[in-house]
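#structure-requests
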Amino acid sequence: MDWGMKNRLARLIKADGRCFFLPIDHGYFQGPTRCLEKPGETIRPLLEFCDGLFVTRGVLRSAVDALDSTPIILRVSGGTSMVGKDLADEGITTSIEEIIRLNASAVGISVFVGSEYEKQTLLNLARLVNECEDYGIPVMAVTAVGKELAKRDARYLGLCCRIAAELGARIVKTYWCDEDFDKVVHGCPVPVVIAGGPKCESEKEVFEFVYDGMQKGAIGINLGRNVWQSPHPAAMAAALRAVVHENANVKKALKVFEEFKNR
């Protein structure tokens, strides 16, 4: 691994080998998502807890402070929306020149394995890796399922993660599953981070799946809605950081959450 690649990954994955990424890229297909209407205000109290911010170039330029920034994972795929025919019909939206111009520590792209656009999105990933490797920029593949949440089982997720790694992704973002998640992680030869998915019913539910996923081999998390849509987002971020970087269990995470909430 060359110096530039190693340096960029070290910005995102800390010395303990773990990471907490905060995605706020949802607007690229959902529009002004609840609690992200003003993304700059939403993220301001959360950045101190996060190791990386997953964001589109438009929001990066308009809402993220360039003088005091968390390392950036730039969302570089898109072209579809919630009201369109198929969320999987994505293309690459951002040039390598733009990625370098914005000083991204990494880039992120979705792949839709098993969809009508499987080949297209996998080739998008391959082309992006080809370009980014020349400049030492890591690519994070996001194993997206669109609206078909029923696909989130170990066999499917394991397939997606392995294919993404085989095509050159340096990190893979995937969903947690309650059975055999360890098989998903162990079948992927690059680091795996856990996606949040839909908003959970309680803080405890979030801490449970994150703790379980970390125990089963994930190096970190990439959670958005379960943080910034919480009634107490800073407390949620502090508690999740404790799970990721301090190996806090669910009981300890709930304690951290309550302490921050009551400040």
